[in-house]
Amino acid sequence: MTSQPEAASYPGESLGLPASGAGSLASWRSRIAALLVDWGTSMILATFAFGIGVLRDGGWRAWMILAVFFVQTSVMSALVGGSFGQVLARLAIVRLDRRPLGWARAIARAALICLVVPTVVIGAERRALNDLVLGTVVVRRA
Asked: What is the pairing mode between strands 136-140 and 91-95?
C-alpha cells in the first residue's frame, strides 16, 4: 500500500517558510494594501511630473502612471527587496534559492505585474504566475 504525501499544515510550509513571523508567507490583505499604496503613490508622482492630464487625457499621458509604477516597483525591488508599498506593509520579495533578487528579476517582475494577467493567475502557496515563473515569493519582513 502506498502512502499519500502529507498535506502542508500551513501556507508556505512546502517552500520551507516559517508558519508565522518574519519570513512567513505574506497575507493577501497586506499584499493588496501594498499594491494600492504603490498605485496611489504612482498616481501622485505622475501627476506632479507630467501634469493633471495623466488622470484624464489620452495619448502618451495616459500611460505615465503605469510607467511611474513600473520604474518605482523595479528600482525599489532591486534595491531594497520590495516596492514602496511593500516596504510600508513590511513585506519583501525573496527568491526561493535565497540569493539576492537582482535587477533582472526585479524588472521582469515589475513588467509582469504591469501586464496584470500574470498577477491575477494564482498558483500554490499564494504565488502569482509572475512569482512562479521567477522563483520568488512575497514574505513578511522582520
From this structure: antiparallel
